[in-house]
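Private note to self, pasted from the team thread so I don't lose it. Backbone tokens:
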């Protein structure tokens, strides 16, 4: 994983300035040490991403979770491979959160990933230690509660920026967003939910709309995709993309059309339109959730 050590001195100084690190030290070693401390401080990276332009936070979260990726996969468009990255990746680049490696891929900087992974509860520090006054209370909105069976399960949910989750305990998090929005965001990032109980798809006897149906094999997958279109429901695909050397990816898709064994729709993993071939779908699930992005 790339480190801030790979940044030029001027890039380190600029990142410190933009991140609010104050006047950067003249010596490179001291500047690097200051940038490392700033990026790895609990909550610093997440606080910076709160002010990022649209798409930047999601791109960084994906790089931190899945590893390096080409610009085309992140933005859905090409890049000539020299100089500053195209927006919104340039916002991340000048702050030392991402960089372009020798392989031509965009890498999340190791120190930024470390800081991003640290959980903060954002709770006020008690000022009265003598016990004479309980102090004031703070009331915050929480419309959704997410509970994980293990801390590791919750950590994965917390890494989904569009869910807006904030940890309040090792296995409990809250969000100001509605349960439907949080569930859709988690499913879109490939996080399994307890209510996604799976039953085998039966074209002749479809399950209730509230059930998640699963299909394996070309013929059952075709029937399931046709039902997804007819019922305007999301599908979750185990897809073997050619662009990643045949590696499987887990993604939620809003189906738009299905013909000639090609499914076209909005891919929540890539945040853009994508086309999927039936022969590359290892497993398909028809989800209870309705599509969020109708066909243009």
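Design output:
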């Amino acid at each position: 994983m790339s480190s801030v050590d790979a940044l030029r001195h001027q890039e380190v100084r600029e990142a410190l300035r933009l991140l609010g690190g104050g006047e950067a030290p003249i010596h490179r070693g001291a500047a690097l040490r200051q940038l490392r401390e700033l990026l790895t401080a609990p909550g610093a990276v997440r606080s910076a991403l709160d002010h990022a332009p649209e798409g930047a936070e999601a791109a960084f979260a994906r790089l931190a979770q899945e590893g390096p990726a080409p610009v085309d996969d992140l933005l859905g468009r090409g890049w000539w491979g020299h100089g500053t990255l195209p927006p919104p990746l340039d916002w991340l680049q000048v702050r030392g959160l991402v960089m372009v490696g020798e392989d031509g891929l965009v890498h999340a900087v190791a120190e930024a990933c470390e800081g991003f992974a640290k959980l903060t509860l954002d709770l006020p520090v008690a000022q009265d230690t003598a016990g004479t006054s309980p102090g004031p209370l703070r009331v915050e909105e929480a419309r959704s509660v997410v509970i994980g069976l293990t801390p590791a399960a919750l950590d994965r949910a917390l890494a989904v920026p569009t869910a807006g989750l904030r940890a309040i305990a090792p296995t409990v998090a809250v969000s100001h967003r509605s349960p439907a929005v949080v569930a859709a965001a988690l499913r879109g990032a490939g996080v399994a939910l307890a209510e996604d109980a799976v039953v085998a798809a039966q074209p002749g006897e479809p399950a209730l709309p509230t059930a998640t149906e699963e299909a394996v094999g070309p013929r059952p997958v075709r029937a399931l995709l046709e039902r997804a279109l007819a019922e305007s429901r999301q599908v979750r695909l185990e897809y073997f993309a050619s662009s990643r050397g045949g590696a499987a990816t887990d993604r939620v898709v809003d189906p738009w059309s299905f013909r000639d064994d090609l499914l076209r729709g909005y891919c929540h993993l890539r945040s853009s339109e994508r086309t999927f071939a039936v022969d590359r779908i290892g497993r398909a699930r028809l989800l209870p959730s309705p599509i969020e992005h109708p066909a243009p």
